[in-house]
Amino acid sequence: MSVFQSIYNKINSSLFSINNGYIPIAKNGFWKYRKEPAFSLHKTAEIFQKIKGKTIVEIGTGLHGNLSGNSILVWLEETSAERIIAIDLNPESIDELRKYVQKDSRLELVVADGNNYLKEYDTFIDLLYLDYWTPDKSGELPGTGRAESYLNTYINTKSKLSKSSMILIDDTDHIHPWKHTLIVPEARKDGFKVIFTGRQTLLKR
């Protein structure tokens, strides 16, 4: 089988699945035909510009290639945000971004637990981007830890989100429970609307 034929078969299979009302799930829990987040990130940056956003807070950061989208680079290159805060527990992930601080003073690097950081945070946020990892407790259904932690992040942050703010959640193309399971319905109760979903989910009010 040629490379072209192999690619064609994958695309055809994917379209057949979607057109027939189901999306195959791979063994790792994600959609079998997984998209890169580039479109989602660019679209979010575009909307951020339209609402004249000033502050972006990203929890779970670093440069991890196309599959992760390298979101910080999108915020730096495609938005006029006045402040971009990148938070991660892993110092190595923060170090990956250090060279960009020298080029763009808007970028602030923080080694911390995002939820703890946000409890003390006292400025309005226009875009909250969530892409961090939380382990599950022993015996819990896989993904429960992430679902509960993302909900806690929203609870800790909602009073600090601006009136026209957005919440972008990564890896929402996964079976429940996962990052989006609890935070999305809770945010919708508070007036957020789902703009798009799939590889990532964007909420806006």
Topology, element by element:
Blueprint: H1 3-19, H2 38-50, E1 55-59, H3 71-78, E2 83-88, H4 91-95, H5 98-103, E3 107-111, H6 114-120, E4 125-130, H7 144-157, E5 161-170, H8 183-189, E6 193-196, E7 200-204
Parallel strand pairs: 1-2, 1-4, 2-3, 4-5
Antiparallel strand pairs: 5-7, 6-7
**Helicity, as a percent range:** 25-40%
Largest sheet: 7 strands, mixed
One letter per element, helices H and strands E, the order comes to HHEHEHHEHEHEHEE
Please report which band the strand proportion falls in: under 5%, 5-15%, 15-25%, 25-35%, 35-45% or over 45%: 15-25%
CATH architecture of the largest domain: 3-Layer(aba) Sandwich
**SS element count, helices:** 8
Terminal CA distance reads 49 Å
Q: What order do the strands of the largest sheet run in, or round the barrel if closed? A: 3-2-1-4-5-7-6
Can you identify the CATH class of the largest domain?
Answer: Alpha Beta
The named CATH superfamily of the largest domain: Vaccinia Virus protein VP39
User: Which class do the helix and strand fractions yield?
Assistant: alpha/beta
Total domains: 2
Quaternary state of this entry equals: single chain
Shape: globular
Rg (C-alpha, Å):
18 Å
Say how many strands there are: 7
Indicate the low-confidence ranges by residue numbers. Answer: none
CATH third-tier fold name of the largest domain: Rossmann fold
Give the rounded overall mean pLDDT: 91
